[in-house]
Amino acid sequence: MLEFYDFITYSFFAIEIGHTFFPAHSEYGSLMLSLATFGAGFVTRPIGGIVLGIYSDRVGRRPAMLLSFALMGVAILALSLTPSYNAIGVAAPVIVIVARMAQGFALGGEVGPTTAYLMEIAAPERRALVVSWQPASQQIAATAGALVGVILSKTMAPEALDAYGWRIAFLIGALCLPFGLWMRRTLPETITREERGADTNQSSGHLKLARRYIRVIALALMILASGTIATYVTQYMTTYAKNTLHVAPTLAFAVSLVSNGLGIAGALLGGWLADRFGRKPVMIWPQLVTLALTYPTFLWIVQAPGAMSLLLGFGALSLIGSLPFTAFYATFTEALPQEIRGGVFATIYALAIATFGGTAQLVVTWLLHISGDPLAPSWYLLLAATVGLLAMSLMPETAPAFRDKDPR
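The structure assignment produced for this chain is given below.
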């Protein structure tokens, strides 16, 4: 949660960061430079996924988790404490860009090892529920970042927020770094030298083993692409509510809070259900319901924009839509052998995020622009949900009580 908080918080203060490090001839130019730096974090996520994911398979989960957390800590301190462009010139934006790329590298290498660790440390009958804290923590981070942003904006003058208030948001995350490092140092390791074996210590051994699971890996990429698009389009709904539906900013923010809160509940509920009824039913049936509800929900919201339609409509989509992806997290980690689990999960996750997460909001904005139809976001969501449903139906059942004979 702390790592995602540090990564996501940048987006809430993109305007203020632009003023501090990227002065330009226009407000638009400053913001675009700041957003481009935000995007630089996505570029390095696949690299971090590959490097730290493989490191976790070869050396251990705990060293990889400590390294990713330490990198994020250094990056967040650099972002918080770097003087402005007016103070040190071009060195300021250079430091910020490097720090942002380090953040992306750390976060890319975080998800695979931690998801694998959660699965490996859990009792077999509770794996999905324990793993569900991974996606739930991301929702908690988004909610915390939004709340910090609102509190600071309500309690500080605009000039103070622009000058130093945004730094406070980052330093709040930095204050938790010593606790996070201490906590991870005390975790028991789940991989031993004997379990790794001699052959899988070599790159060729990892690649050879990964090829045997290429079908599961390809399906996982499709599902992660679907989930990533849904996540980032949902995050866009605050902007959509303000710019397209022209509702009050307070209501738009409430939509974000309610959606995130229900997303946390849905992630944990999905894990609990997947342990009780198996992974595939919890992937397939909620995804079908999401597919059926998406267009009618958008139609209701567009025709009657208001608190009822926005909060209930987007809240329901967020709750139901988060159920299948928790079950998927458990399925994918269980389907992979321990020798390649961290590296493969981290790489596929980071590739999906970089490719589809980094472009989702651009695609939606483009669709709205060329069509002029406020229902345009639902088209992209329907396409993504259909692809995800198809891949989910082809994934193996991996729950211990319902497991298929061969997860490949």
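Interim note for the steering committee: The two ends are 31 Å apart (CA to CA). The chain has one domain: 2-183+200-394.
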